Amino acid sequence: MQPLFLPRRSVPHKAPLLGFISAGNPLDPTPFTTRRRIPIPPGFRRFGMFVFQVDGNSMTLPDGSGLPHGSFLLVDSHDVISQEGHVYAFRLADGSLVAKRLRLRAGRPAMYSDNPSYSPIVLDREVRRCGRVYAFSLDGRTWEYAGYRPWSH
């Protein structure tokens, strides 16, 4: 009997741009009609990846770094394991999407902004993680890894 060989699937080289994700107040989910695909460099390609464009400044640090308004976030939809300190794309009960850092608040998971002007939001059963933000781009062409940020407050 000959061994069964399955053809290898290649990792997609483009990711769908699904629309905007709020980094501030939650956005209305209805304007997600614009669909285009953004080329992703080989080191950043994954199965289940998609892109959002940031709307708002809650994930911008006081020095201007971080995930500023207009930047692009590359999300791994297969990585939904909760790890404190990483940024995730969350879908709220009303369908709106937000990008926030996961932290604990009084022993419960909460969504935190990198901008200290925004208050944390405690997670409830209605909130779903869409995936971990693992890279970002300011221009949609040059990507950097979005890493863990330790608790600093």
Structural account:
With 153 residues, the protein is mostly beta strands. Helix content is 0%, strand content 39%. It contains no helices and 10 strands. The protein has strands at residues 14-22, 36-39, 49-55, 72-76, 87-91, 97-105, 108-112, 121-122, 128-137, 143-145. The radius of gyration is 16 Å and the shape is globular.
Structural class estimated from helices and strands: mainly beta
Regarding quaternary structure, what we see is single chain
Average pLDDT confidence is 84
- Estimated radius of gyration: 16 Å
Overview in brief:
The chain is an all-beta fold. It has strands at 14-22, 36-39, 49-55, 72-76, 87-91, 97-105, 108-112, 121-122, 128-137, 143-145. Strands 1, 2, 3, 4, 5, 6, 7, 8, 9 and 10 form a 10-stranded mixed β-sheet that branches.
Index terms:
globular; 10 strands; 10-stranded mixed sheet; 153 residues
Task: Draw up the topology in text.
Layout: E1 14-22, E2 36-39, E3 49-55, E4 72-76, E5 87-91, E6 97-105, E7 108-112, E8 121-122, E9 128-137, E10 143-145
Parallel strand pairs: 1-3
Antiparallel strand pairs: 1-2, 3-4, 4-9, 5-6, 5-9, 6-7, 7-8, 9-10
